[in-house]
Specification:
The complex is a heterodimer of chains A (792) and B (261).
Chain A lengths: L13 H5 L15 E7 L5 E7 L1 H5 L3 E6 H6 L31 E2 L5 E7 L2 H8 L3 E6 L23 E8 L1 H10 L2 E9 L11 E7 L4 E6 L4 H10 L9 E4 L15 H13 L3 E4 L2 H7 L6 E9 L5 E13 L26 E10 L13 H19 L3 H8 L6 E2 L5 E2 L4 H11 L5 H10 L3 E10 L7 H6 L8 E7 L5 E5 L8 H13 L6 E4 L17 H27 L7 E4 L2 E4 L5 E3 H9 L20 E6 L8 E11 L4 E12 L6 H20 L30 E6 L16 H17 L11 H18 L1
Parallel strand pairs in A: 1-12, 10-11, 14-15, 20-21, 27-28
Antiparallel strand pairs in A: 1-5, 2-4, 2-6, 3-5, 7-15, 8-13, 9-10, 9-12, 13-14, 16-17, 18-26, 19-20, 19-25, 22-23, 23-24, 26-27
Helix pairs in contact in A: 9-18, 14-15, 15-16, 17-18
Chain B lengths: L4 E4 L3 H7 L4 E4 L5 H6 L7 E4 L9 E3 L3 E5 L4 H6 L1 H6 L1 H8 L4 H6 L2 H7 L6 H7 L3 E4 L3 E3 H4 E3 L2 E2 L7 E7 L3 E8 L6 E9 L4 E6 L6 E2 L1 H9 L24 H18 L1
Parallel strand pairs in B: 1-3, 2-3
Antiparallel strand pairs in B: 4-5, 5-10, 6-7, 6-10, 8-9, 11-12, 12-13, 13-14
The chains are: A alpha+beta (792), B alpha+beta (261).
């Protein structure tokens, strides 16, 4: 049987999705359901003087109106930060309470203050307008850079500072800088983004008064984790009385990791009114209240020798947390960011200092790449600047500082198990025709255009786990993953996974893995996920972890199945288990060449007895049935890496940047399904290029979101991109049995610096902030013209 | 969205009769519907005019192209007759919004709304259009009164737009990357005796740039407007483009339009 791993198996989920048969949360309608609308703060910062719901309660069709008072009375808990970060001075981070409905203060536009529940959506909307809230508007803090100088947002949190965190050794860095021939420094802004999943958030909460169970259908990347948080911290219901189902979910990108206010409030309220409640976000609510991403202000320096050897690196960053610290809010700018700050390079001394600040803006949390795009942007902009200032070719300078031996122990945290960065660079250069750039530049010049080329070499720590590491870093839970492989008596297989697919094609790729492990046809394998009532507790999908952690759990559970199958076969064929081999779905006794198929073995496991005989096929000690579970906790992160090269052409008259070429050469370890991986790379690139050239979440000084719709927030479209030129190198991860590394975030990590390095190259080294909009680039072109005419 | 009454008018007369101070005509609904959904506009009655046959269709004569008010952008974009008579007009229609908008949005709706960044108003100004309503004919130069303001009276319904076929013409737009509306769009049309330089997106309302028109009437070459320093004091400034940048774009797009003629 040919191996399915590595082949372009068509997606099992496509038929469902492409024929409109997907079942998303908004598609779920329950008998006798009600509809919810949340009343939200129109102000970025205010105290609530009075809240009057009398008129709303009298409005047509209204079932209930609940506010922060009832939430507090029922002791419903708030939203939490999942990671505890300690400041450099040893103090614990400072997190404000974040009740699911604000009672006394609102801290960003969109902060919910009440839920209005009615018989119809229209009635809920109408009644919501009748909720009277008397706000005392306070001065908002919106600037990341100035947050520490603003008014105190949360009582007791001085300077709006959550923590002031350090990773690395300041003294060693100082010594390295003292020895340097040159110091390259840079000030950069990592612009705030809005994730914009295609499916807005939604939830349907149901309550069964007889069983006292709450069922919550919600748009989540990690239903088990949601249940845990809602139960342990939200006090909504004990875990065994709360079922969380995340059915088909239309994109997450990190924005659906969090338990949100609406999940908690709808679940709690459904029990209170003893009826089902449905809430579906409007797109404008998504803009305002989904977690946002990035938003760093950074000063970084690189100490170099005159021949381009990197000696030391420092990174001083202010990270905006928004109004509250959420699940991955505090870890994103610290442990997902700091350890990756030195990029792929061998830099003997380094530190990263992060001051995380509160502002009156939407909470900032993990968004595709989470910390690693910010880290990569900083180091790669700095390295590109170094190549300009040192006059060393940008690819040569990088190669000069690549580690060559693996495992490679980085200065800060990670030990990278495998990689071949030089091979990746050489292949990327060839794919991009790096040598031919000068000719293309001159051709552009002849047309009156400016052409630039940009390079990024990146690595990322993903496959987020391993528990020992993440718990020592401050994570509240271990981050293993679970899988359960269950045979039916007639030989089909159901794989329960704790990972969650919201576009990642697990139904296909996980089935490919199980098909290869078990020798069962892929059409006989179902992947089940997304329901806390089905399968064991699982951690969910984020940090490019599904394959490298969840996939390995499946492999391990399959291996346990095979082991049991060997014992059963041996008993059935009267052989020694050690003499039984398993290949392509058959257990073969090597000496006699007698065999049993895995289907026959499964059947025997479920019907352990032979008619008219007292003989069982089950060896002593083995129980009936064929079902195995694995909890996989890896020994290390996985480390994808690669080199990307972009070429842009700029029209100096309008400042329009045209992305002419984009080459991505990635090392994801072993690839399960190249078609799915291409999809992941394309998606990541679209979001990364979006950050570089188009997307920007902008608040005005009063805290109003200026880019709250697609009229103003530029989502990139297909015509903004060239044909992507995608290739791979492949060094297998040595830390897991499949040799896989993860591919979901690479594009979003590598593309911003790659594109910006190209833009800035075209502009003769002039800094431009992301997104490099036409107007910013036009201004830079004017400066360039001025300085050129001076030089002439 | 608040509740409203929906009417489908069978002819202009009925549509006009149904109109009141609390009503709006509904053609493609590309602005009306989103405004209602966002609560920015509420109407008691929506009077659908899409089923009025007379309002749809394209007629080309030797001198003019007449487009029915309820004709969709996609129909103008795909019309061989328009492409032949005024190719710049079909390419303008092809560049409006996205396929969904082009499949529903109409020319009448666009000019009646008179969004300062819309494309069609510039075509009306540049191509010496006459707006035919159920009551009268209005010259384009007297039709666009200000931001979202037109010469239309209550209950007055646009029936068709008649464009004069120029010797040559071109529309060049610098689109807002998010909305694809014009940050600045310049429509240049050259007639035997004069040149029009219609500019959209730059100010609160579409206008004919007399200074550039004069320069181009003398010498129809992009060199005659190159480096022109336009007054940006009354130009729009927002998060997408400053007034200064818009002023520069007006000249850049005008040059491109001349070169493309």
């Amino acid at each position: 049987m040919a191996s399915l791993v590595g082949s372009r198996v068509e997606r099992k989920e496509d038929k469902r999705f492409l024929t409109g048969k997907g079942r998303y949360t908004a598609d779920i309608n329950l008998a006798n359901q009600t509809y919810a609308i949340f009343v939200r703060s129109p102000h970025a910062r205010a105290s609530i003087k009075k809240l009057n719901i009398d008129k709303a309660l009298k409005s047509s069709g209204v079932v209930s109106v609940l506010t922060g008072k009832e939430v507090a009375d029922d002791k419903i808990g708030g939203l939490i930060a999942g990671w505890a970060i300690r400041s450099e001075d040893g103090t614990e981070m400072k997190c404000p309470g974040n009740p699911p409905l604000a009672k006394d203060n609102v801290n960003f536009v969109g902060d919910p203050v009440a839920i209005v529940i009615a018989e119809s959506l229209a009635e809920a909307k109408e009644a919501a307008e009748k909720v009277e809230v008397d706000y005392k508007v306070l001065k908002a803090v919106t600037s990341t850079a100035e947050a520490m100088n603003g008014d105190t947002i949360h009582e007791g949190i001085d300077k709006n500072l959550c923590f002031d965190w350090l990773l690395g050794d300041r003294q060693k860095v100082k010594e390295a800088f003292d020895k340097a021939d040159k110091v390259i420094s840079i000030d950069i802004i990592n612009n705030r983004l809005i994730p914009n999943a295609m499916e807005p958030r939604a939830c349907v909460a149901d309550y069964n008064a007889a069983s006292e169970e709450i069922t919550l259908y919600t748009t989540s990347q990690n239903p088990h984790l949601s249940r845990l948080i809602m139960s342990a911290f939200g006090n909504v219901a004990p875990e065994h009385k709360l079922r969380v189902v995340a059915p088909d979910v239309g994109g997450g990108f990190g924005s659906k990791i969090n338990v949100y206010n609406e999940d908690i409030v709808c679940s709690w309220a459904a029990k209170k009114i003893n009826r089902a409640i449905k809430w579906v976000a409007e797109r404008s609510e998504s803009f305002l209240t989904d977690i946002h991403g990035r938003d760093h202000v950074t000063h970084a320096e690189l100490a170099v020798t005159k021949d381009g050897k990197f000696l030391g690196f420092k990174n001083e960053t202010i990270a905006n947390l928004g109004a509250y610290a959420r699940v991955f809010g505090t870890v994103t700018p610290t442990y997902l960011f700091g350890p990756c700050a030195t990029g792929v390079y061998d830099i003997p001394a380094a530190y990263t200092n992060v001051k995380a600040v509160y502002t009156n803006t939407a909470p900032v949390d993990a968004y595709r790449g989470a910390g690693r795009p910010e880290a990569t942007y900083t180091i790669e902009r700095l390295v590109e600047k170094a190549s300009m200032e040192l006059g060393i070719d940008k690819t040569e300078l990088r190669i000069k500082n690549f580690p060559t031996a693996f495992p490679f122990k980085q200065t800060l945290v990670h030990t990278v198990d495998s990689g071949d960065y030089v091979a990746g660079m050489e292949k990327a250069k060839q794919m991009a025709d790096y040598k031919g750039f000068e000719t293309r530049r001159r051709e552009s010049e002849a047309k009156g255009k400016l052409r630039g080329i940009g390079v990024t070499s990146y690595f990322e720590a993903c496959g987020i786990a391993p528990s020992a590491a993440v718990m020592s870093l401050g994570c509240g839970v271990g981050l293993w993953e679970s899988a359960e492989v269950r045979f039916n008596p007639t030989g089909q297989v159901t794989v329960y996974t704790g990972s969650h697919s919201h576009g990642q094609s697990h139904q296909t790729t996980f089935a490919q893995i199980a098909a290869d492990e078990l020798g069962v046809p892929i059409e006989n394998i179902d992947i089940v996920h997304g329901d806390t009532d089905k399968g064991t507790f699982g951690m969910g999908t984020y940090g490019s972890r599904s394959l490298a952690v969840g996939g390995i759990a499946i492999v391990n559970a399959c291996k346990k199945i095979v082991e049991k199958g060997k014992r059963v076969t041996a008993k059935m064929l009267e052989a020694n288990p050690e003499d039984v081999e398993f290949k392509d779905g058959e257990f073969i006794v090597s000496k006699s060449n007698k065999k049993k198929t895995i289907g026959e073995v499964a059947f025997a496991c479920y019907l352990p007895g032979v008619r008219d005989e007292m003989k069982s096929p089950l060896p002593e000690g083995d129980e009936p049935g064929l079902k195995e579970t694995s909890f996989y906790d890896p020994s290390n992160f996985s480390f994808p890496a690669g080199t990307h090269i972009a070429e842009v052409e700029i029209d100096p008259e309008t400042g329009h940047v045209k992305l002419e070429k984009y080459t991505a050469c990635d090392d994801f370890g072993r690839i399960i399904n190249p078609m799915v991986v291409e999809g992941q790379v394309h998606g990541g690139l679209a979001q990364g290029i979006g950050q570089a050239l188009y997307e920007n979440a902008e608040y005005d000084e009063t805290g109003q979101l200026m880019t709250g719709s697609y009229m103003d927030y530029t989502m990139p479209r297909a015509d903004n991109f060239p044909e992507f030129n995608i290739g791979y190198t492949c060094t297998h991860a040595t830390t897991n049995p499949l040799g896989v590394k993860g591919c979901g975030e690479a594009g979003a990590i590598a593309a911003p610096p790659t594109v910006m390095n190209a833009v800035i190259d075209a502009l003769g080294g002039q800094e431009v902030t992301m997104p490099a909009t036409a107007e910013k680039v036009w201004k830079a072109c004017k400066n360039l013209k001025k300085s050129n005419s001076k030089a002439a | 969205m608040k509740e409203f009454n929906y009417h489908s008018a069978k002819d202009s007369k009925e549509a006009s009769k149904l109109a009141s101070s609390g009503s709006a005509f509904l053609a493609g609904g590309m602005t009306t519907i989103p405004s209602m959904k966002l609560g920015l506009a509420t109407y008691k009655d929506l009077i659908d005019i899409k089923n009025i046959k007379k309002l749809s269709g394209i007629k080309v004569s030797g001198k003019s192209v007449t487009i029915g008010a309820a004709t969709k952008h996609v129909e103008v974009a795909n019309s061989k007759d328009v492409k032949k008579a005024i190719p710049s007009l079909s390419s303008l229609a092809e560049g409006i919004g996205d396929p969904q908008v082009r499949n529903r949005g109409t020319i009448g709706g666009s000019i009646a709304n008179n969004d300062p960044s819309a494309d069609y108003p510039s075509a009306c100004i540049a191509l010496n259009a006459t707006i035919h309503t159920n009551q009268r004919k209005i010259e384009a130069s007297k039709f666009f009164k200000g931001m979202f303001e037109t010469a239309l009276k209550k209950g007055e319904l646009i029936e068709a737009v008649e464009f004069q076929i120029p010797e040559k013409s071109s529309y060049q737009k610098h689109p807002n990357p998010a909305s694809r509306y014009a940050v600045v769009g310049v429509y240049i049309a050259k007639y035997k005796s004069d040149v029009n330089v219609a500019v959209t997106g730059a100010k609160s309302c579409v206008y004919n740039d007399k200074e550039m028109a004069k320069a181009l009437s003398g010498n129809f070459s992009s060199s005659s407007i190159d480096g022109m320093d336009l007054d940006s004091s009354d130009m729009n400034s927002d998060i997408h483009a400053s007034a200064e940048y818009r002023a520069s774009l007006v000249v850049t797009q005008a040059k491109k339009a001349v070169d493309a003629c």
